[in-house]
## 1
Amino acid sequence: MNRLLSIELQKIWKNKASRILTLTYFVLLSFIALIASIKFDIGPFKFQAAEMGVFNFPYIWHFNTYVAVWFKLFLAIVIVSMMANEYTYGTLKQNLIDGLSKKEFIISKFLTVILFALCSTIFVFIMTLILGLSFSSYTEFDIVFSDLEYLLAFFVNLLGFFSFCLFIGTLVKRSAFALGFLLVWFFIEQIIKGLLAFQIFPDSNKDRYFTQFLPLESISNLLIEPGSRLSLIKSIGNQIGVQSAKDYSVHYSTILIVLVWTFLFIYFSYKLLKNRDL
């Protein structure tokens, strides 16, 4: 496994665009810390993120993972390009000539996906711990390390999304078209959601039962937006008569759905490569 992973990492590091995008991704993740310095002072209205409790434990685990997950698009480009470049530069055929099997080839890509997701999770864990211990009003051990399931949801979110990108890269073979396909698929899911909600099940919430199984939808369901959890937002909502009934918890059924999709993405990536004439 170390041999397979080292081969992929060398390919990524030697590609200037992939190297820059990967470094940019982790730099942008560190910029979450800058949210603590955001401060607005407009007349009687004063706002500072740290004072609103954004960095309080255990809420910060939810907040930071939700913000960090949006930066995954940078690594998605790297993963799509990683697969597309194999066809463009003929390295796939060369690897197979050198003795690498198609199964080992896909495993090497999936190991890279796991590594990216794991490194991102560890990075967010360390950064969140530092920010929380610096700004949180609650630093008791039990409170600090509660709600860590959001980190698990973050890891599975990246794992599922990157596996989807790997599958698309294998299917389409060209970076630009693969990223376009990703965007098209997003709109397809939105259309399906709209049809189910407004045409098929307009008078009930049954549409959510079906949409939870869509790949991108299931991935996004792992981390629900945390903004409306803040006490200030809740109090404003109560004053204007808007009650939030969102379920912010991490559901293991959703994790299972995403893991099944991850397996299918990797499996069909292998089947595509196996049956393709290179």
## 2
Amino acid sequence: MSSKAFAIAFACTALTALCATPALALTDPTAVAKGYRAPRDGFGHPDLSGTWGTATITRLERDPKLGDRLVLTAAEVAALEGSIAAGNAKAALPTDQKLSVDQVDCGVKGFSGVACGYNNFWVDPGTKVMRIAGEPRASILVSPKDGRVPMTDSGTARQRAAFGNAQVGNFDGPERRPLAERCLVGFGSTSGPPMLPVLYNNHYAIAQSKDEVALQVEMVHDVRMIRVGGVHAPASMREWMGDSIAHWEGETLVVDTTNFRPDQTFRGATINMHVTERLTRISPTQILYQFRVEDPATFKAPLEGEVAWNLTKDHIYEYACHEGNYALPGILAGARNAEKQGKEMEGNRGQVKEEGER
């Protein structure tokens, strides 16, 4: 990896019964910024305000065939971006009217036939590989070195138990449907933390004052209100998107989040999950967003990743999610009808993955 990295090692002994934390692999923002200093707000803090886009075809986890290689070659970038362009061009063609509903490919990966809630026109997962300091990245994760999520055996077992046999969904009632489907929070950790790009609506707006920073999420109109200074709320208070406090370290806003709800953790982590985020404006048009996720009960090692937030002139409009939504009552009515016929829906007692989980 050609990026300069910094390492912080944590020592431990057998007496403490703590596992050693691997060295940080995150990029040094000062090296990337090359002397750039962000403009200041009225309180003397680096100004992060604005609307930022994160859409990218770079995934959270790396293709296993790339091993420990974080940076793609020019040929690999051309192939990936060319494949996306070709797919978008194909999806833009008129639908063959001779096809039956079951034969239709809506152009959205993972959706076809009657599952086509929308076609390719309505999604915006990005068309370019993510670049940080000019480097085309093979994954958002930079640590572990292979860019993969290292689940513990207990974490995997817990995740499987939660999903149960839910291959097609859970239809007992609205409270059993995924959070995003109920318009409570965005899917795929778009609201975070960590805040990750998803299938569409990959914009964030930042507004800041002396003692608070607001992060508006385009998806499901979530807003994270982050206190600058202070301490965390009592552990008994579990909040949507966790309880976040922050402080400034030079050019970087460091956000510390705990107190997660059991139904909104990252990749099936426990409520003891701890997330640290770092936002550094490294140029007039880019924020380097870095995160570290820790939960020894779920992940064999801390997860560290980086996302490029690019300044945009786009605006965030109202996100109307449930207004006029007839799908959910239709889904539940269909399940009740199936049950009357003795065809209880498979997966009726498990959980389902969030839409668009990457």
## 3
Amino acid sequence: MMKHALLTAASIIGLSLTPTASLAQTAPQTVVTSEVDAEGREALAYSLAIQAYLYSYPLFIWERERLRRENLTEAQTRGPIAPINRLGHMNWLANANSDMPYSPNNDTVYTGVSLDLRAEPIILDMPAIKDRYAVVQSVNAYMENQTYHYSPRINGGDAVQLAFVGPNWEGDLPEGVERVEIDTPSGALAIRLAVRRNEADLATVRGYQAQMSLTPLSAWDNGPTDIEPAIPAPLERESFEGPFAHFQQMAVLLAENPPPPQHAAMNATLWRLGLEPGQAFDPETLDPDTRAGILRAIEDGPAVMEYLRRNRGQRYPTGWDTARYADDIVFDYAARAAISLVGLLGNDPEEAIYFYTYFDSENAPLDGSERYRMHFEPEDLPGINELGFWSVTMYDGESFLLVDNPIDRYSIGSRHNLQYNDDGSLDLYIQPEAPGGEFDSNWLPSPEGRPYRVTFRIYSPKPETTQSLYDGELALPPLEPVDRP
């Protein structure tokens, strides 16, 4: 009876458990009822469709950002937004009036570029920046970081010329120009420059931004020229309606930016859903059970993303959460989707660490009317490299907005004039009213009567800090409720 059950189960999932030919000849034929088949097909389709939903989610964020830029003729002032293949300088620090569909920091100014590399490579001329943290981050259309070539860690902030090259280009680059592979036809750059909250320092940073330039390879003449890269024509798109519209658009996005080779394992399962990269999605070619499973996944997808918005990675005992630290984060499609939704272009942990929480030390949701304290023992303060720093930033609990407050303080951290305790420990006060006295400098205002979240960023962390935080040997202190006076 046991052998019969094992062989029956094996035949259902297509495994071979036949050590000899005679056993194979005498094994009983498996008979599965149509009802079981239907349930199995729908469950399999649902499972795979949820994975496809998460896998492709960054492409939908990419499309959203592309559409914000596609018909622009000049750079915008509301964010790091410019026409495709143009530099978009946000030369002011994000504040409560910043309307960006992701969580901007309040520590750096941004320069952003949406790249279309189908025609030819595009060369970024980046000036030397030695007096502050500055990093050039490049990503593909799946929001996956590519190789870093500019930061204090990588090249000491020396001037550099970087050629961003798409997957199908072959050729040689000019002498002195470094090659940066982007493994999809579209890509993006996020350039961050640390800035202090005063006009003099902002003017210095704007000067650095003015020295940046983009030049198409064909116009490079031993250096940048006045010829800018071509702005691609708007894409002609079919508009999809009906219950399968999400998967139909998914097929289009997968065709425009074919999945890089590292995702071969995931791509090998898409055919079961009628998805073949490069081909249109036609639900009429699928059986009714598979269609039902896909529709259920499309319906549940937003709820999955809402959960991941608050629980994107690994939860630590002190309440902080982060995407797991590993080279294979690219293959954690749930975390990758959540980062695309909430963070959008988060750096690798070697460059910057991001922890966040919606909860206090008792696992209760953060309440803007309550008072909290973060207490750091001297040995718990994050280790940072030269030019590195850390900060805690306040965000609205239901949106990406920074929280308005009477002193325009949206973050607090190591670059502020913090007041340390006599023993070298540090207390940060997160509450609606100032703590009073000398510790007002340690106050991060919260929105009274509203939920919120906070993000802890460490820029240019020391390697041992990075490793110990992710291993749990070093813990960020929790937000501890403090009794009201």
